[in-house]
Write a structure and sequence with these properties.
The protein is mainly α. The chain has helices at about 1-30, 40-50, 55-65, 75-85, 100-110, 120-125, 130-140, 145-170, 175-180, 200-220, 225-240, 245-270, 270-295, 300-310, 315-330, 330-335, 345-350, 360-390, 400-410, 420-435.
Length: about 450
């Protein structure tokens, strides 16, 4: 037992050291403009995968959500998959049957091989995240280190925000201008293609909210509350400065659900004063944050109000929704087969002379794979939720579901399968589903009960 714990400790410190080097190399490359080859990051990934255990490999994969515009993360995912298969090959023979839903999705896309610009190489790259999700979802291993995974995600997001901020200063924009609201954090045209570590404002808001959801789960289970609140404050500030409407809506929902869970937790302990105290504390914190934001960043606040009062608050998404609905249901082939996942803007341009993509995850699925594809994706969703529920003694609480609820809400104004970070966000949400109400993985003791009611 001592040897096992020592081995776990050694692998953990190795992971900390390598990830710190990973983040430092990223900042040095992007801020100082030093020509560090992409292969260096692939070597880091290979070392982490070989020297680490499952939790370290999953943490590296989850960190690729915020780092997706900084590195060629799909190759990192493929490296993790290869090492994972080598290390845990014996488990592959015991994969649960519902992994087949992922296989069906891949097969359905393969049937589009005759469409415009189909590439088998791009096909394999496109499904790197899905393959890794299938490996994790369908094996019996559930002894996750939730704190490690969530903290790695949060720190990676903070590193990316740091890169964005440093690049703003490097471009000659003053601090006053940066925080004025006239500059939206994440707005850096063309940077994503050059792996400069930038997101558009909505993308930056997405990774901030996902990290916040994970940190709130840590606080709920009483893990490092002071450090986590500091990180949440940092992520909230820069998420707000993106001026992203979807960030604000999703953030409000996350806070409301977290507050509800904390009050419910106190009610179960029959502590009325604690419940009232939580409500008052959250209300005071939100009011204080709003007051400070309006006083410290008045220009940003004014800009945000202008965006909220725009004639089209959806920024053209309603028109896109109508446009793609007309296309999808214009023919039997479109509705039942779709156009495939590759080269969607080019295919739409060839048909209508417009290079546009859907900004709704459900509609995107219908566009690329038709109604059968949507059914497969829903079945895939149901399968991993059901699998987590069975593993978790048939108990899934609202706190378990927090990242998944956020993902579904955010996905109504974004992309789904065509966005690799979305599939990795599902992996993060699935892992959260596997945590019990005491903050640990499920106990083998059937007599163990929960202080919280199951909602599923």
């Amino acid at each position: 037992m001592i040897a096992i714990e020592k081995g776990k400790l050694n692998s953990r410190w190795t992971f900390y050291a390598l990830m710190s080097l990973f983040w430092l190399t990223l900042v040095v490359r992007n801020f100082f403009g030093i020509g560090i080859p992409v292969v260096v990051f692939l070597v880091y990934a290979l070392a982490i995968s070989f020297l680490g255990k499952r939790n370290e490999m999953i943490s590296l994969a989850v960190s690729c959500i915020p780092l997706s515009t900084s590195i060629q993360y799909k190759y990192i995912i493929l490296i993790i998959i290869a090492v994972y298969v080598v290390k845990y090959f014996k488990e592959l023979g015991h994969m649960q049957a519902w992994a087949l839903f992922g296989v069906l999705i891949m097969f359905w896309e393969l049937l589009h091989f005759g469409t415009l610009g189909f590439s088998i190489v791009e096909y394999l790259r496109s499904f790197a995240e899905l393959l890794f999700c299938m490996l994790i979802f369908a094996t019996s291993y559930r002894d996750y280190d939730f704190s490690l995974i969530r903290t790695t995600l949060a720190i990676s997001t903070i590193v990316v925000i740091g890169v964005v901020f440093l690049n703003i200063l490097k471009e000659g924009i003053s601090l006053d201008e940066a925080f004025s609201g006239y500059y939206r954090f994440g707005k850096y045209d063309g940077a994503s293609e050059s792996f400069a570590g930038q997101f558009n404002p909505n993308g930056l808001g997405f990774i901030c909210n996902l990290s916040i959801a994970g940190l709130l789960q840590e606080i709920y289970y009483k893990k490092r509350p002071v450090v986590n609140w500091i990180m949440i404050a940092f992520l909230t500030l820069f998420g707000t400065l993106t001026l992203s409407r979807s960030f604000l809506v999703c953030f409000a929902v996350i806070i409301l659900l977290f507050t509800w869970c904390k009050v419910h937790q106190s009610n179960k302990k029959k502590n009325l004063f604690r419940s009232v105290g939580i409500l008052l504390a959250v209300a005071a914190a939100m009011a204080g944050a709003f007051f400070l934001f309006t006083k410290l960043f008045p220009s940003a606040y004014a800009q945000f109000l202008n965006r909220m009062n725009a004639d089209d608050i959806t920024n053209g998404r309603i028109e896109l929704l109508s446009f793609f609905n007309k296309h999808i249901f214009s023919s039997f082939e479109n509705a039942m087969f779709g156009i495939g996942m590759q080269n969607v803007p080019e295919k739409i341009d060839a048909l209508y002379g417009r290079q546009v993509v859907p900004h709704n995850g459900i509609q995107e699925t219908l566009l690329i794979w038709g109604i059968p594809g949507l059914v497969m994706v829903v079945a895939w969703f149901w399968s991993f939720i059901h699998g987590a529920k069975l593993h978790n003694k048939n108990r899934l609480t609202l706190m378990n579901l927090l990242p998944l609820v956020f993902f579904i809400l955010e996905n109504q104004s974004g992309q789904f399968f065509r966005s690799g970070k979305s599939l990795l966000a599902i992996l993060f949400a699935f892992i959260s589903l596997c945590q019990t109400t005491d903050g640990e993985t499920p106990s083998n003791d059937p007599q163990k009960t929960s202080n919280e009611e199951s909602i599923l």
